[in-house]
Backbone:
């Protein structure tokens, strides 16, 4: 059973480099995937307005993949939890499942909840694995000291977590596999505050800025993320945050898929690093690379 | 007033067993910054029926849904889920904050919560998705998405009916 890749809103509207780099990795390692035949939001933000609207949107995406007998592969942590939670909710709540399926029946779809919803990071770890990655490394990222940020929705609630919710090590292990260092730092579990920023943008930027400045103070060369909402919070907001704190809060911020892509020999542009707004050239310089 | 969603959700998360260990508060990134915001306080207020006070307050929209409170609660109270229920009730009563209405309108119009913003590349060029060599998705029809909102009877206007 292959995958159906679901990009998510942030990747559709600005985080293109995540999709570019993720697909480079998937193709390189021969992971069977197809693109979703159409796109609409997974429903996550609508959960806060109406639970049934969320369940219908998420249930529809699951039904589309189910029809093609494929598991869903998400890039975004938000979509990962939204779809997993909706699947569980619909399996347990017969009346809502009926309501959703009545709506979906209009277009010949049915939610059955038989497929899995996987996150790109766990696909990299479980389907590709350390051995294959190690055998494909062309550039060791020696000398880089990177701060890892997971993003809440792949860790909590526990039942859907890709690793230990309080003390995850998965991403650090996969960063170290590439030759870089990924030590513990006290701020690593701090949330990116994306939903809070809807209602309190300035306060959210303060919380993000505290993390970015701490990472800089601790001598990290960059920040590694696996979620487009976190990447947006920490990268796209850097200029705003620097103004707010009246000091330079900028630090190279990149997706794990981009880092892995560089390590297995792709050029910076092939993994979309030219689309990152943080000073990623600093990171490239340290490993003897530049934008050609 | 429609409190049915809240009643239902409160019925499966047992807020009455909260004994105020404050683990939710100590782990909450919002509580760290905002003194009035306490996940267990919101749960207790909901449990004792202070629904009007809660749905009229901006506080219930502060939760960033990181699920630390839900994960750490030793009694499975799940404050983050109580807050989702409260937001549903607030929305049924015309209290959805503007950013969420904006997201809903965008979803109906363009499928995603925000339009294609484009990014400025390292060569100082503004590129949008259409300019790049990546998959072009067909966007689901507005009418279909609008229907999902309409059947939930959310009292917010989503443009063109």
Residues:
């Amino acid at each position: 059973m292959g995958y159906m890749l679901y990009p998510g809103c942030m990747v559709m509207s600005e985080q293109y480099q995540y999709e570019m780099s993720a697909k480079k990795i998937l193709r390189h390692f021969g992971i069977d995937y197809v693109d979703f035949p159409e796109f609409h939001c997974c429903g996550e933000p609508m959960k806060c307005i109406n639970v049934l609207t969320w369940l219908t949107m998420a249930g529809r995406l699951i039904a589309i993949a189910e029809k093609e007998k494929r598991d869903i592969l998400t890039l975004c942590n938000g979509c990962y939890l939204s779809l997993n939670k909706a699947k569980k909710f619909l399996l347990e709540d017969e009346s809502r499942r009926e309501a959703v399926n009545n709506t979906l029946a209009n277009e010949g779809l049915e939610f059955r909840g038989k497929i899995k919803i996987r996150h790109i990071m766990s696909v990299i770890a479980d389907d590709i694995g350390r051995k294959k990655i190690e055998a494909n490394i062309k550039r060791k990222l020696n000398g880089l000291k990177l701060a890892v940020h997971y993003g809440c929705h792949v860790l909590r609630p526990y039942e859907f977590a890709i690793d230990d919710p309080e003390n995850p090590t998965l991403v650090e292990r996969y960063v170290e596999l590439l030759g870089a260092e990924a030590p513990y730092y006290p701020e690593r579990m701090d949330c990116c505050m994306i939903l809070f920023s809807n209602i309190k943008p300035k306060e959210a930027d303060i919380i993000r800025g505290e993390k970015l400045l701490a990472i800089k103070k601790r001598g990290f060369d960059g920040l590694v993320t696996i979620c487009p909402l976190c990447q947006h919070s920490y990268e796209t907001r850097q200029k705003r945050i620097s103004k707010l704190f009246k000091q330079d809060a900028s630090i190279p911020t990149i997706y794990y898929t981009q880092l892995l892509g560089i390590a297995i020999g792709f050029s910076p542009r092939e993994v979309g690093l030219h689309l990152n707004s943080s000073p990623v050239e600093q990171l490239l310089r340290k490993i003897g690379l530049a934008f050609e | 007033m429609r409190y049915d969603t809240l009643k239902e959700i409160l019925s499966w998360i047992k807020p009455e067993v909260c004994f105020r260990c404050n683990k939710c508060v100590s782990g909450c990134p919002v509580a760290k910054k905002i003194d009035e915001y306490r996940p267990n306080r919101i749960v207790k207020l909901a449990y004792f029926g202070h629904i009007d006070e809660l749905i009229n307050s901006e506080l219930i929209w502060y939760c960033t849904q990181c699920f630390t409170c839900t994960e750490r609660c030793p009694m499975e109270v799940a404050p983050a889920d109580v807050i989702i229920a409260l937001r549903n009730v607030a929305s049924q009563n015309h209290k959805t904050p503007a950013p969420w209405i904006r997201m809903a309108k965008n979803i109906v119009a363009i499928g995603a919560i925000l339009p294609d913003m484009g990014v400025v590349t390292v060569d100082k060029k503004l590129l949008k998705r259409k300019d790049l060599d990546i998959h072009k998705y067909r966007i689901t029809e507005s009418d279909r998405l609008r229907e999902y909102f309409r059947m939930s009877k959310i009292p917010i206007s989503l443009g063109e009916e």
